[in-house]
Backbone:
DNA sequence: AAACATTTGTCCGTATGTATA
DNA sequence: ATATACATACGGACAAATGTT
């Protein structure tokens, strides 16, 4: 029997991982609101697992800054005002800058092809007004660059920050615009030239620009 | 009854936190060797808690890259060759650079006093050849700057990396030298002048220099 | 002030899954 | 290939701690 080319092996997730992904998704998309108190037994029933994996998932989310666990008191969803982009984006920009620096010398032709294809997808999503699709593709594009670095420290620092970006997106604090398409193009071209400094500069500004734009749109804060 | 001024409230740790700190310490100082298989029941007995908090602690350590958990197979201490500094330090340098940038505009006189005192301590430790004491003070100094930023994303990204620095130190891959004293002085002076760019530059080079030194001392890798 | 109710933290027994013989 | 042995993952019950009535 011929095996379909794009067959994705069904990934069997442990109960803990299912709980983690589901709860994180619920936090990010606003199903679980900031400040909301969490009842682990309730969540366990909703997800269809016991308290243990839910508890474990909550501890991970706590480490990533999505929930706050006060021993013996309560577990709550962390408050996240949209203004948080000013806190989140500088460290993220720095790390993405490093990623670009590390990727520039080692990038291969096939990576460039893939990045260009992703940027096409990204542009299409922006132009069709599907900003959620744009967000997901944007994440894939940056993630592809990060994985070129083969650096677990970088990856594990960026991953939770990316999740927070998605959270802020659902709070309408992050808006992806036309400008990002051009920035991606610039970044890809710098990577193609193995231009370390320029790649780093563009990657950083791609993440720092939204801070200015948000500040300009919300001068009261 | 007069309450002693420097009375430190005895911090009651949960079993999980005790387990986490103890196991991390054992990994860092080499009591638990890279590659070693972990038996949670054994650890639980040694620490004096049950398997659950040990399991939870191991999951956190897994998130931080200290242990590797293969579901249903084994939990092992991550292999960490000394050459890892070349992986760890670039992202850490970038984050410490951001920390310096964010701290420079908001730093207060009392912070500068504290930082100078810490650098004195650091110098004393270096000169007396107590490199372990130097490491601990170095950590405090950088941590003080990071906390000025009031940025949880930055803090939670840097914390596990700092733990890895200590791990590499115990593997004799990180050596603190006289040069660091001067770099700290430069950094403190830049912070005092609220010179964002210079503070960032010095902070980064303080972390990037050891990579060069390690590479020079181990040309075979 | 004391007892209560709720929620979290901990324990340990069992089942599932993997790697071996 | 099947069976066996092992370690981990999960579940549910208990205990401790907090805040409240």
Residues:
């Amino acid at each position: 029997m011929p095996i379909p080319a794009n067959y994705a092996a069904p990934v069997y997730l442990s109960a803990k991982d299912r709980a983690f992904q589901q709860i994180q998704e619920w936090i990010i998309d606003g199903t679980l609101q900031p400040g909301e108190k969490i009842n682990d037994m309730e969540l366990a029933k909703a997800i269809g697992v016991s308290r243990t994996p839910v508890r474990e998932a909550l501890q991970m989310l706590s480490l990533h800054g999505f929930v706050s666990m006060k021993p013996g008191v309560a577990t709550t969803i962390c408050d996240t005002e949209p203004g948080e982009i000013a806190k989140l984006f500088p460290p993220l920009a720095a790390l993405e800058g490093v990623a670009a620096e590390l990727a520039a010398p080692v990038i291969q032709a096939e990576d460039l092809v893939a990045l260009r294809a992703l940027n096409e997808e990204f542009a299409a999503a922006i132009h069709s007004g599907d900003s959620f699709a744009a967000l997901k593709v944007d994440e894939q594009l940056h993630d592809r660059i990060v994985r070129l670095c083969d650096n677990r420290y970088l990856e594990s620092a960026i991953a939770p920050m990316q999740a927070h970006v998605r959270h802020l997106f659902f709070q309408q604090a992050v808006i992806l615009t036309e400008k990002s398409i051009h920035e991606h193009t610039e970044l890809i071209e710098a990577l193609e030239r193995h231009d370390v400094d320029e790649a780093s500069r563009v990657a950083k500004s791609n993440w720092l620009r939204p801070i200015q734009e948000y500040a300009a749109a919300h001068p009261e804060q």
Summary: Residues 85-217 of chain A form a domain with the Four Helix Bundle (Hemerythrin (Met), subunit A) fold (CATH 1.20.120.530). The interface with chain B takes residues 14, 52, 55-56, 59-60, 63-65, 71, 87-88, 90-92, 94-95, 97-98, 101-102, 151-154, 156-157, 160-161, 164 of chain A (CB under 8 Å). Confidence is low (pLDDT under 50) at residues 1-9 of chain A. Chain A has two domains: 15-77, 85-217.
